[in-house]
Amino acid sequence: MTAELDFESWTCPLPLRDTPAVVMGHGGGGAMSAELVEHLFRPAYGPAGEGPLGDSAVVPVGAERIAFSTDSYVVKPMFFPGGSIGDLAVNGTVNDLAMSGATPLYLSVAFILQEGTLLAEVARIAAAVGAAAHAAGVRLVTGDTKVVDNGSGDGVYLNTAGVGMVAPGLEIGAHRAAVGDAVLISGDIGVHGVAVMSVRKGIEFDTTVVSDSAPLHGLVAAMLATGVDVHTLRDPTRGGVAASLNEIARTASVGISLTERALPIPAAVADACSLLGLDPLQVANEGKLLAFVPSADADVVLAAMRAHPLGSGARQIGTCVASHPGMVVAQTALGGTRVVNMPIGEQLPRIC
User: Any idea of the CA torsion for 237, 193, 327, 230, to the nearest 10 degrees?
Assistant: First the structure.
């Protein structure tokens, strides 16, 4: 693009209109990220970029269908309780494929290294990539390495892409969420974000908060094995549960009503969020999923989830409703309601 961008022609709300340069919030997975895609990337891509441009895409290849996904990881610090940027990159891409109902098969991994980074740290991250891929049952089949000048990066950045196979007839997506669906979650929320921030900010708890980073395709397979028509799956990473639910509500034009008391927020996460002025619903997760299933089948799916090690804390947190389409509302413990907004930018930058 050589022509100057006309910011005044954009229809998106603040703060994008008055932000002619990239800010951290553009990478947060919230409203600013969505506006950047919709008002800059889509017009720039033209016909080549038609389609949903989601976390993963299901595309036909002959008589088969494959899921394809790519993601980049800029985590700070690179090592945190329960994991590192290496296993996080593998698990994150595996999970994006799994949320399409795919069986993950192959990954690429590209390392972007800052000059001066210790080779021992690079080796430690590479070993974590290999171990996570082996544990998830996927193969690393291609990759790349680049080095940037000292001061132009920050240690190690990773880019991963993944390919998986989708079973015939299986259709899972945000557009399928329907009025009457039960909204399920596989366990405690906000754990990954707080684990990273506890290291970054030096916050101490009675017990160590460990990241929930994990590959979720086995849990998804157990859910699908019930035979229930699972409408929607989403791993609430950047922007947390709030961003994922708002995106689903808007895509499917349904309202979502949450029960605040049902939200599984661990005490350590609640305490950290209170201390830092954060909303737990907007904190990133890396080993949890949201599922939308017909209410009549919710107990069957919950039983399958709870029988799996990564879904032992599964519970229903809400319902899809016909009222307030495109909006997420929480029923508070005091009997009132509050709107759960889409995050504007990013509460916790460089979490994933």
Answer: 40
pLDDT by 10s per residue, the chain, length 352:
344 544 444 444 444 445 678 777 676 666 677 777 777 877 888 887 777 766 778 999 988 999 999 999 999 899 999 999 999 999 999 999 999 999 999 999 999 999 999 999 999 999 999 999 999 999 999 999 999 999 888 899 999 999 999 999 999 999 999 999 999 999 999 999 999 988 887 766 666 789 999 999 999 999 999 999 999 999 999 889 999 999 999 999 999 999 999 999 999 999 888 888 889 999 999 999 999 999 999 999 999 999 999 999 999 999 999 999 999 999 988 888 999 988 765 666 677 7
CATH topology of domain 174-339: Phosphoribosyl-aminoimidazole Synthetase; Chain A, domain 2 (3.90.650)
Residue 186: phi and psi, rounded to 5, are -85, -10
Query: CB of 183 within 8 A of CB of 199?
Result: no
- What is d(CA 327, CA 339) in angstroms, rounded to the nearest whole number? 8
pTM of the model: 0.87
The CATH-assigned architecture of domain 54-166 is 2-Layer Sandwich (3.30)
